[in-house]
Amino acid sequence: MMKNRFKKLFIYLVFFYSFFNIQLNSKEVPSSFADLAEKLIPSVVNISTTQTIVTNVNPFPFEFPPGSPFEDMFKEFNTPQKRKTSALGSGFIIDAKGIVITNNHVIKDAEDILVRVDGDKEYKAKVIGADPLSDIAVLKIESKDKFKSVKFGDSDKARIGDWVIAIGNPFGLGGTVTSGIISARNRSIGLSRYEDYIQTDASINQGNSGGPLFDMNGNVIGINTAILGQSGSIGIGFSIPSNSAKIIIDQLIEFGETKRGWLGVRIQYVTEEIANVEGLSKPRGALVASVAKNSPSDKAGIKSGDIILEFNGTPIKEMKELPKIVAQTEVGKTVEVKVWRNKKEIKKTIKLGRLETSSDFQVTKKKKDLNISEIKSLKIAVRVLNKKDIENRKLPKETTGLVITDIRNDSPINYLKVNNIIIEAQKKKIRSINELEKIIKTVLRSSEKTLLISIYNNQNQRRYIGVKLD
Questions:
Q1: Active-site option among 48, 134, 209, 377
Q2: What is the pTM of this model?
Q3: Is 209 a catalytic residue?
């Protein structure tokens, strides 16, 4: 009887200890974000950009079919027509002198940049530096006024479940505050080379791009960059962590460009099967598929088939971690790398090169420029569908079209996905970028300005979509 009483007492004590421990360690739900929002809104800016697009207008009431011998003959009669396009985004001030942070895609190719501060004051701004790989840009407001700035917080301390607020310019409305929690960390969604996004359920929509994600101390822990959802926020938004962003921002401010560390290897995932063959206890590290000639790794003796387990004291749990860690390491620094070779661990010393000046990086840029073109009126980038695509996607052999490689947030078809294939426009088969651009020109001259396109989505399902062009 006495034993049962002690047992019950022990259970109650454990319950109350657990309950009070949870209460002491958990943070209270904020009763209001008003004081915090009031303090932060003056440091968040609305960004609008303008760009001139030149299109050739056919003066004749007819067009020759693609490939017609008369097509080139009458090209000289086409008259160039200029029109202005605009885009909206957000940003935030990090220095009283008017240094503004935003996304690269917000200001890309802009001729004029206007920054609206505190809802009513408008200033011109210039680009100090921009980095497409991380999608970060630094602007300077052209004014001698003093501005209210915000500080970066430590994004590594942000935990899943922490409260956050986002402030930005969704749909051009300006000064909009939304709240939520951190839903996940270390997200990769295939938008850029270096991805380590914070995921949040705070509502983020078109126009929020470049705006700040704040913690409850009013510090910036992320730059809002991407959303999932066709017509707006569905509670899945992504932000660049402040710790990663700050390294890029400091370089852009100091040099006007980035200086990333470079190893000179192509890597792939270590699968369960590869780990078994190589004698690793579990899949980990990054498998070296190839080594660039005369690269830092080549000079240090790294070989194809090596598995990089540790870089400069940091264990590599999986392949995707290595590029980010290397890129954030100072150019010219000598680091120790632990490598798994012939079922044993060896050490190599490597002096890092600079990615941006590497031959490997330059070749990649050239290949990208040659194969991919921008359709400015749709605000997308595309490339021509090839035989390998048809084979990999198991499409009908006679399929022709354009593969979407990039979609801007302000695109009229931003609800589509990268790798969707445009196969028809106005019920005509698309075989080249030139054909699509000609059809778009015709639509822009019409009174309705409505483009009908047919696509294959990423599940190879065919869909028709009506697009209103400006």
A1: 209
A2: 0.67
A3: yes
